[in-house]
Amino acid sequence: MALALLLSWVTFLAGLSRDHGHVSCVLVAALLHYLILVSFMWMVIEGILLFLQFKVRQGGIRRYMLKTVLPAWGLPLIPVIIILSIDVNLYTGWEHYCWMSRTAFYYAFLAPIGIMVFANIVLYGLIVFKICRRRDIAHGGTSYNVISIRASIASFVVLGLSWVFGFLAIEDARLVFQYLFTCTTAFQGFLIFAIFTTRDPAVRQFWRDLICRCKKVKGEVHGPGMQSAHNRPETKETSFNRSK
Q: How far is CA 106 from the centre of its chain?
């Protein structure tokens, strides 16, 4: 999801302006369409995985990466391919920037995102309902990773809220919602980093162990042990090895 968001905003900043040729404009619009759908698809997959975590208590998912990467990066290709097969010019529907026309936007962009957001709302609603009904989780039990569930729901709100503002940026309230969309979108990366990295005890412990290990190795290399090795009295064996 982070990679999809990064690529989408690099594409947005680099190629949204319609100063390039027709082919480049179509490519930029199609890439933006695809990458944004991929970002939301990752959220759906994360919701499904968390829901399965409540259904299957023991054992992991076989071929985990294959079963998540293929649908996340593969299914969003379907709307893009449909638009390209119907009419390539649907990706050049605006005069000053490269983006799809209104008809394509409603059916190939807004409809899939609406379906994915609705699916995630249902999944997270079921998850929260199960959390509230289970006493071991409600009282801080460790049967399930409650931190991951909170992080996933929070990141879904961060990602979905910005596009809610984007959809509402119409008619008289356009300017207000455009500012809200820009502000919420600008902090997506930082908020996702804070949610998944700084608030996760396992991640913090990993970096703590890594830093302490590096300091320990550095101390062993440059510490007193190395100096004592150099100051050690020379014996016949060490003299022979050195001359050899």
A: 25
Q: What share of the chain is helix, strand, coil (3-state, %, to 5)?
A: 80, 0, 20
**Structure pTM?**
0.73
Rounded to the nearest 5°, which phi and psi values hold at 200? -95, 115
At 17, give phi and psi (nearest 5°).
Answer: -65, 140
Secondary structure element (H or E) that encloses residue 94, with its range: none
Residue reference for tokens 């008289």: 172
For residues 102 and 228, what is the distance between their CA atoms, to the nearest angstrom?
76
Which pair of structure tokens corresponds to residue 177? 């919602």
CA-closest candidate to residue 4, choices 51, 74, 61, 53? 74
pLDDT, tens digit, 9 for 90 and up, residues 1-30:
889 988 988 888 888 776 677 888 889 899
- Type of residue found at 233: P
